[in-house]
Specification:
2 domains; globular; mainly alpha; disordered C terminus
Length: 140
């Protein structure tokens, strides 16, 4: 029994140490896409927490935001987190859809004030694209 407890302690220590290393490496990322992706989920969690408490947010948007927050916190995922690169993809998609839904119901200034990260990221997320993808002609 003692060996199991020691093994679990070592495993927990290794897990915490790996998280610390990842946080240190994420803070050292140069500005760009990788840094933006590393900050996206923490920024979304902060935004969810702030919007959940704001009285100007309608109930339907609050429910969508809380469900997205629960999805991110849930240990059950469509794509396991340990899968490199695409592991957090399901979390990112669910949070992005919830924030887009909320953006149609929440005053824009409230959503922008709740976002702690780079404003251009939330602007890009909530602003609908006009005219389709670049280089493609729109259907007539």
């Amino acid at each position: 029994m003692r060996d199991w407890i020691i093994g679990l302690g070592i495993a927990a220590l290794c897990l915490v140490a790996s998280w610390a290393v990842l946080l240190i490496l994420a803070r050292r990322l140069p500005p760009g896409l990788l840094r933006d992706l590393a900050a996206f989920i923490p920024d979304c969690v902060t935004t969810v927490r702030r919007l959940r408490k704001d009285p100007r947010v309608p109930r339907s948007a609050r429910i969508a935001i809380v469900l997205a927050g629960v999805w991110v916190a849930s240990p059950i995922d469509l794509i396991p987190e340990f899968v490199p690169v695409i592991g957090p993809l399901d979390d990112i998609v669910v949070v992005a859809l919830a924030l887009r839904y909320a953006a149609r119901r929440v005053p824009r200034e409230v959503l922008l004030a709740a976002w702690p990260g780079e404003p251009r990221l939330i602007e890009r997320l909530i602003t609908p694209r006009r005219g389709g993808a670049p280089g493609r002609s729109s259907p007539r």
